[in-house]
Amino acid sequence: SDTKVMTCAAVWRMPKELESGSHESPDDSSSNTQTLELLCHLDNTAHGNMACVMWEPMGDGKKIISLADNNILLWDLQESSDKAVLSSSAALEGKGQLKFTSGRWSPHHNCTQIATANDTTVRGWDTRSMRQIYCIENAHGQLVRDLDFNPNKQYYLASCGDDCKVKFWDTRNVTEPVKTLEEHSHWVWNVRYNHSHDQLILTGSSDSRVILSNMVSISSEPFGHMVDDDELSDQEDQHQEEK
């Protein structure tokens, strides 16, 4: 608007044909272009610019958390999803202009915890009380860009940042990272766990590289156990174990 750049958030409905379970190829030339239906905007006029929006990982898809400047906002989508009601919020307090850069909703602990990044700090929050439950000050030497929770180990969190590092934390003891990766030569923008096999970590950086790392030492699975059990016959299973 005018000379100001505003970042906002909205909820859209995808066409039924594109919902999960549909096996149509999205680039099929015979299919018509589908339009998204705008359901509602997450009103952020009172809270500032949106940095990040997160769906509740489990549940009925009615809860959303957004990070706007220094505010954590928990939204409740109404039955028709055409209205989002602000159900609770918390503000980051301290010196200077504090702003969130990213966040992640934990799939563990009945989805009652989120992790946020601001400047060089990573914080954990309880969504029921909106209170801080842990704080990792100077988690990175420079700005923290992204976070991700291990899908299979409930206290493990990965972070990455402008110090070119990817760090892995046990949120029960945040004095030291469990492990640090230094494969990138520039800012690390993203870190993501494989949804099934948590030894596989994908990172993207402005050194123009995407790196897939095999973090066996901090994964929930033994080394080499990369094939889903139900895909193997007994004979193959035995052979796999011998290997």
UniProtKB/TrEMBL annotation:
Which keywords does this Swiss-Prot/TrEMBL entry list?
Answer: Repeat, WD repeat
Biological processes, Gene Ontology terms: protein ubiquitination
Q: Mind telling me which Gene3D superfamilies this protein's record contains?
A: YVTN repeat-like/Quinoprotein amine dehydrogenase (2.130.10.10)
- Residue ranges constituting the EIPR1-like beta-propeller domain according to the UniProt record: 31-212
InterPro entries for this protein: Beta-prop_EIPR1-like, EIPR1, WD40/YVTN_repeat-like_dom_sf, WD40_repeat_CS, WD40_repeat_dom_sf, WD40_rpt
For the region Disordered, give the residue spans.
222-243
Looking up Pfam families in the UniProt record yields: Beta-prop_EIPR1
The WD repeats extend over 137-173
Q: Which N-terminal residues, if any, form the signal peptide? A: none
PANTHER family listed in its UniProt record: EARP AND GARP COMPLEX-INTERACTING PROTEIN 1, WD-REPEAT PROTEIN
The UniProt similarity line reads: Belongs to the WD repeat EIPR1 family.
Q: What is the official name of this protein in its record?
A: EIPR1 protein
Q: Which gene encodes it?
A: Eipr1
